[in-house]
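pasting for the record
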Amino acid sequence: MSASAEKRLVARRRLIKFTGASLLLSVSPLGQAAAGRAVGIVAVRVWPAADYTRVTIEHNAPLKYTHFLVKDPDRLVVDLEGVEFNGVLDGLASKVAADDPNIRLLRAGRYKPGVVRLVMELKGEANPQVFELAPVGGYGHRLVLDVYPLNPPDPLLSLIDRNEPGQAVVESRTASRPDSRSEARPEAVADSRREVRSEAAPSEQKAAAKRAGRPMVDRLVTITLDPGHGGEDPGAVGSGGSYEKNVTLAVARRLKAKIEAEPNMRAVLTRDADYFVPLQARVQKARRIQSDLFVSIHADAFVRPDANGSSVFVLSESGASSSAARYLAQKENAADLIGGVNIDVKDPVLARTLLDLSQTATINDSLKLGKAVLGEIGGINRLHKANVEQAGFAVLKAPDIPSILIETAFISNPEEEKKLNDEAYQDKMAEAILSGIRKYFAKNPPLAKSRLARLD
């Protein structure tokens, strides 16, 4: 046997062994490059997060791909057909940070004529989703690799673990259910904790709190803060180059710190870094931790640069309260198209939740919250509309959580763009929102939902 023939045989054996150890997941549909013309990879972006890590591969034409998992060690392999190996792919390894929660390494190479192979080394067992996105916004064709850990972080567990000894924690209502998986949750050690009821504050303290507009509650109030957009979805872009996704996260972080400095309040972010969270997942996160309020933070934009002011919106059961509100809702609901959602993955329970518009009581509470917050925001910025507006925002459709969407200012307005990037203004905005929340709770005390306990 000649040396060249022996090399081909060894290569073939390696291929058979490699493929035999893998699990074939899917093959892309009919999309493929035009005959005789290689597809060019335009960019590769990596968005790491504890929930999942997203890798987007942007290309200039449809392509054909296959992907499969390999064990020991865990790897995701993606073969791209008709793709030109270029400098973008050659520099793939530098895209993954050492502290990425889910990906250890990402590399690419020429696998065989006309095929580029991507190999993603994982940090643990994963449940990847691989799907295509059609061109939208400023993006061309995109192949998305979403790497979800097989055992995703539990938001309620993370919330409880965050409390240090001596601080109050909330026991989940599911703790007493006999069929709950108590062995894997902190409720399993609840018997070793000394449960105490919060002592009633002296009457003079209650009076002082009432004068200050601070709510008096006997349990922890949980508020979900939702920084709009993120990751692949930058949101609106100001003339100075500011991204809405960065501004919203900055304000949300400041508001979170202020809320957690309050007695009996805590805050959770739907995202704490620059990554994309689908709209329905934001609602789901709030419901899983039994939030008392949901506050979505945004920065408005319009075709005219002179549009200015802050606004507050809540969900509408019927039509929008104005054409501007309807336009804004359509624009915000399109975030999933920009950020990219795998439409093949459906949650029927969540779908029913998002379609459930029989939530009059929740909308009424949302209007009360919105009015209180709008009044406070009006003290630091001009109001675009003097009243709380309503429209069909998908991110506000939790049927049991009062929810508002705040447009902090117009990022498309050069003057307001400067404000939104100013730390002092961000702090004032956060303080105004908190003040509105305090006023809401002062008139609408939260209902009993969870018991207040302390660690021994």
